[in-house]
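Q: I'm building a small set of examples for a reading group on sequence design. Run inverse folding on the following structure and report the sequence directly after it, with nothing in between.
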């Protein structure tokens, strides 16, 4: 008997509800965090940190030797990650707490910016256990990121710079005058900057904007004694510092100070307002735990962006005919946006029809299987040639069901 995804979801929820009604949950609401910690410690000897935000469960584990010398995931570290993931699965499938997502972050102790991140939808864990989806489909639904964390790396660099400024090291001579007014009005070797607070926003996959508050001490040069009234020793200052991990190890891209001299007066910038205007795309905090509750639209945009790339790498009819440099997904104003660079091989006879047909088929199928309907359209942008394809929700569904052809859309 064929059943719709919505019906299958209702059946699964019904089965789980029946099981819950017959049995007290093994890991009741209110004890989920301690249950994950206890399982990891008692069964695998692993120390983890756990945090719940809304319906998102986050687990963090520091691992020594996460990354091999060849910058690959260490096999033993991979086994520890699997043990923690199994502990998460055991808890979330046997609790009465309404959780929807989980994140698992493993970070290298010796190289703190190196990390492996797993993000999953808990309902997918339940479905694969009930054999409602295949293991291959299940693995395609998990977000896997093995990377250098731009926030951790950027913060380390910033703290190193402030330490170097306090020592007046050679490495910061070319940038120290960006820290106005301290190095303009003070005697050499009397400056000291204390970092009071650092806030941050990931504004792209590689760039992080840091909002840094400081307390600054100095002895003024004779000609700047009057500045004590404006900037008494221990005065508060602020900086916006933009880092880009692709520029590692010198990843400081820009430094903007609160104070600047213009004309005949000292002026101020409202750096907090500038910082607040930026959108933070990150969802894992510097502590390795989630900093916000994850949403289905975001999760699907990220899953689909990865699966679009996979289609052109795994489909026998497409493999070798196209090159996929990247694919990024986002969700704004009830629209899924996918920006990608897909170029045809010079000897291939494949065309745009093959690109957009396969992408829309994938998107339509995945959204249908998740029974996700809270969107209005899908917007595709191929940066290879600048072509854009905008498809409404109804048109996408009609294409998925074979009621219209790709040529009716493009």
């Amino acid at each position: 008997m064929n059943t719709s995804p919505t019906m299958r979801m209702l059946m699964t929820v019904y089965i789980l509800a029946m099981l819950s009604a017959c049995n007290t949950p093994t890991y009741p609401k209110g004890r989920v965090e301690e249950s994950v910690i206890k399982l990891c410690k008692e069964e695998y000897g692993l120390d983890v940190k756990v945090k719940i935000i809304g319906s998102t469960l986050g687990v963090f584990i520091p691992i020594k030797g996460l990354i091999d010398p060849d910058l690959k995931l260490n096999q033993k570290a991979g086994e520890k990650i699997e043990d923690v993931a199994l502990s998460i699965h055991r808890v979330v499938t046997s609790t009465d707490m309404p959780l929807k997502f989980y994140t698992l972050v493993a970070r290298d102790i010796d190289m703190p910016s190196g990390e492996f991140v797993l993000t999953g939808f808990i309902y997918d864990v339940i479905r694969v256990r009930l054999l409602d989806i295949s293991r291959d489909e299940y693995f395609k639904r998990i977000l896997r990121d093995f990377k250098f964390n731009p926030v951790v790396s950027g913060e380390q660099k910033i703290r190193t710079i402030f330490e170097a400024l306090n020592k007046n090291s050679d490495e910061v001579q070319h940038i120290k005058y960006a820290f106005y007014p301290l190095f303009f009005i003070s005697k050499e070797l009397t400056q000291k900057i204390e970092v009071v607070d650092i806030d941050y926003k990931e504004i792209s996959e590689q760039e992080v904007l840091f909002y840094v508050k400081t307390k600054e001490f100095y002895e003024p040069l004779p000609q700047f004694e009057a500045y004590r009234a404006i900037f008494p020793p221990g005065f508060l200052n602020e900086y916006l510092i933009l880092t880009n991990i692709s520029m590692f190890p010198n990843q400081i891209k820009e430094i903007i100070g609160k104070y600047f001299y213009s004309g005949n007066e000292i002026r101020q910038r409202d750096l907090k307002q500038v910082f607040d205007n930026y959108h933070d795309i990150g969802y894992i905090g510097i502590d390795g735990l989630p900093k916000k509750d994850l949403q289905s639209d975001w999760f699907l945009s990220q899953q689909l962006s990865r699966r679009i790339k996979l289609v052109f790498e795994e489909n026998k009819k497409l493999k070798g005919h196209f090159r996929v440099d990247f694919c990024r997904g986002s969700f704004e104003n009830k629209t899924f946006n996918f920006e990608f660079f897909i170029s045809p091989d010079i000897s291939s006879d494949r065309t745009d029809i093959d690109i957009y047909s396969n992408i829309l088929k994938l998107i339509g199928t995945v959204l249908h299987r998740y029974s996700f309907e809270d969107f209005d359209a899908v917007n595709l942008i191929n940066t290879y040639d600048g072509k854009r394809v905008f498809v409404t929700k109804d048109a996408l569904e009609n294409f998925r069901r074979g009621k219209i052809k790709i040529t009716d859309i493009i």
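The domain at 296-409 is CATH 3.30.70 (Alpha-Beta Plaits).
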